[in-house]
Amino acid sequence: MKPIALTMGDPAGIGGELTLRAWLARGKREPVPPFFVLDDPTRLADLARGFHMTVPIHPISEPAETKSVFRRALPVFPVRLVEPAEPGRPNAANAAMVIASIENATRLTLAGEAGAVVTNPINKAALYGAGFAYPGHTEFLAALTGATGRQVMMLASPKLRVVPVTVHASLRDSIAMLTSDLILATARTTADALRRTFGIARPRLAMAGLNPHAGESGALGDDESRMIQPAIDALRNEGEDVSGPWPPDTMFTPAARARYDVAICMYHDQALIPLKTLDMDQGVNVTLGLPIIRTSPDHGTAFDIAGQGIANPSSLIAALRLAAELAARH
């Protein structure tokens, strides 16, 4: 198994602390898989001292060194910051290095030197001045890998998997963006990834409605009959196991969740509110439709608590473990 490539994320956020805490968890009963981080060794050493953590930092020149280093030190593929990072204060001067961390992790994974990419959280606004022209990690990774088709964001935990059809847009714009073709493309990518990468031979997809009570037979809206049902019918004609449209307010109960492998939701919060309510600490963001495995923790940079030594590494550890599991199967 090749080591996991972990990016630095925004150096003003909690990514560095999470990285240190993830390495410290390597000896626990459910161990963290070997990983190296593309980050500034001096920054990480300073963070470890400031948090009173015993984390030896070991710069490496190639991912293969991770195997011999990981048990005794944190392997760091050096990406040097232009200016020292200040917790909670993103610095545009370091934006190019944040981007370089993602680019190098992707390059090494495409070349087969790393098994997967796990990304620490970024602050997109801080990157725009350095030429970052993408809505987020997903679109940037698609461009770096030459991915074709539709890339999809899945949030996964032991309790639930969800995929939003529309993601980072206002609710008004999300509804306007919805089409049968978009729903269909999202569901196809999801079903294919569940078979290929998650090892589910016949994935069960549950399609959420958009309106209360899934439209109540048209009394509360016709989006279900006009857009969602045609997509369901097309998927069934292709041999997929799809149910719905489900009333969104009842499809996340324990009994309902037992009937499907993934919920296809119409917009961001319809998917992420139940996932984060049920299992915030174990939630993992997985990008489907890429030629490589990419996961990330299901939270942001947390500038408000950066530097305080109180960040919870559970989601990053879950992202590392899931990346290793998927990479082994992929």
In short:
With 330 residues, this protein is α/β, with parallel strands linked by helices. The protein is built from twelve helices and twelve strands.
What would you note in describing this structure?
- With 330 residues, the protein is an alpha/beta fold.
- It has two domains: 1-147 and 291-330, Isopropylmalate Dehydrogenase (3-Layer(aba) Sandwich), CATH 3.40.718.10; 150-289, Isopropylmalate Dehydrogenase.
- The chain has twelve helices and twelve strands.
- The protein has helices spanning 15-24, 41-50, 66-69, 95-110, 124-127, 137-145, 171-177, 180-196, 223-237, 254-257, 268-279, 314-329; strands spanning 4-7, 35-39, 57-59, 74-78, 116-118, 152-156, 161-164, 204-208, 241-246, 262-265, 284-288, 294-297.
- Strands 3-4-2-1-5-12-11-6-7-10-8-9 form a twelve-stranded mixed sheet, sandwiched between helices.
- β8 (204-208), α9 and β9 (241-246) form a beta-alpha-beta unit.
- The chain is elongated.
